[in-house]
Amino acid sequence: MAFIEKGQKIDIEQIKSRTRLTGQALAHKNKRDQELAEILSGEDERILLVIGPCSSDNEEAVLEYARRLSELQKKVADKIFMVMRVYTAKPRTNGDGYKGLVHQPDTSKAPSLINGLQAVRQLHYRVITETGLTTADEMLYPSNLVLVDDLVSYHAVGARSVEDQEHRFVASGIGAPVGMKNPTSGNLGVMFNAVYAAQNKQTFLFHGQEVETSGNSLAHVILRGATNEYGKNIPNFYYENMLDAISYYEKMGLENPFIVIDTNHDNSGKQYLEQIRIVRQTLLNRDWNEKIKRAVRGFMIESYLEDGRQNEPEVFGKSITDPCLGWDNTVQLIEEIYNTLDK
């Protein structure tokens, strides 16, 4: 074995004890989680937005964004339900350098996992308790789920993780919605097999114990585009792509058909302003086809305080991973969605 033991032992329960939700904050989160479940099951017809920075690299910038988003949520709450992206393990795609808040809570200092774990809890906790929003995170490392399972309201399984059996099985035991992205190849069968596994009972080893899950009926798909053999992005948010996804739901007999359109990544080619066009086109397609309108009821949008991205954290609230919509463009887009719905 080539592993080298490094640093102090991590006491997860001790870390969690400092940032547990109680009282009014816990009741508020439970209420919003119930609303989210009703949106996924179709009882509530509001549009879901999973929206926020590509990667939560700076606590104060993320909180400033959360405060603004919380005020905007209040204005559109009758038609739109927002869960804020607080992605704490999101690295740069090639794995070079920055690997997310959990690895490097302070971008000016060396990586520190013990401090990173505390920073992850604190950030989710502060967003919930200080702004009233609930949060989403990517389940990059299933073993880390125990760190945030009581705080995170929406979990995403990424394109490079969706084929992994452990991600699928762990998703089947989560008591919250789990969005499964299509793999980078664009293979819908792989994604729907992941949803099937997540929606059904599973028995497996987790944290050294044999566990049995009851299945997660709120597991669903996220269409994020694909990359062909030449590295060219192939969008899959078009009319026919949505009908293909709906047909998979039907023939596999899956529960709660729900489709989220990821407006960035290979759908936009990481051209962040394209997110606006993708939302517009999807809303038009919903109006054109009743099946699409019933099933396609969510968007994943990468948005921060400033437009674009930067290599180093020099501009407050500007992404250091994938480019994001800035705040002004975000407000305009959400207002456009709101005004377009049920005209």
Structure explained in plain terms:
One of its GO terms (cellular component) is cytoplasm. Pathway: Metabolic intermediate biosynthesis; chorismate biosynthesis; chorismate from D-erythrose 4-phosphate and phosphoenolpyruvate: step 1/7. It holds the Pfam family DAHP_synth_1. This protein is α/β, with parallel strands linked by helices. It has a single domain, classed as Aldolase class I (TIM Barrel), CATH 3.20.20.70. It has helices at 12-17, 23-41, 59-76, 113-131, 145-148, 165-171, 188-199, 239-252, 265-268, 274-288, 290-295, 327-340, and strands at 47-52, 80-85, 135-138, 152-157, 178-181, 203-206, 209-212, 219-223, 226-227, 233-234, 259-262, 296-302. The strands form three sheets. Strands 1-2-3-4-5-8-11-12 form an eight-stranded parallel beta barrel, surrounded by six helices. Strands 6-7 form a two-stranded antiparallel sheet. The chain has a two-stranded antiparallel sheet with strand order 9-10. Strand 9 and strand 10 (233-234) form a beta hairpin. Helix 3 (59-76) packs parallel to helix 4 (113-131), helix 6 packs across helix 7 and helix 7 packs parallel to helix 8 (239-252). The mean pLDDT is 92.
Large-scale geometry: globular
Write the CATH architecture name. Alpha-Beta Barrel
**Measured on Cα atoms, how large is the radius of gyration?**
19 Å
- Low-pLDDT segments: none
Family: Belongs to the class-I DAHP synthase family.
Keywords: Amino-acid biosynthesis, Aromatic amino acid biosynthesis, Transferase
Function: Stereospecific condensation of phosphoenolpyruvate (PEP) and D-erythrose-4-phosphate (E4P) giving rise to 3-deoxy-D-arabino-heptulosonate-7-phosphate (DAHP).
Catalytic activity: D-erythrose 4-phosphate + phosphoenolpyruvate + H2O = 7-phospho-2-dehydro-3-deoxy-D-arabino-heptonate + phosphate
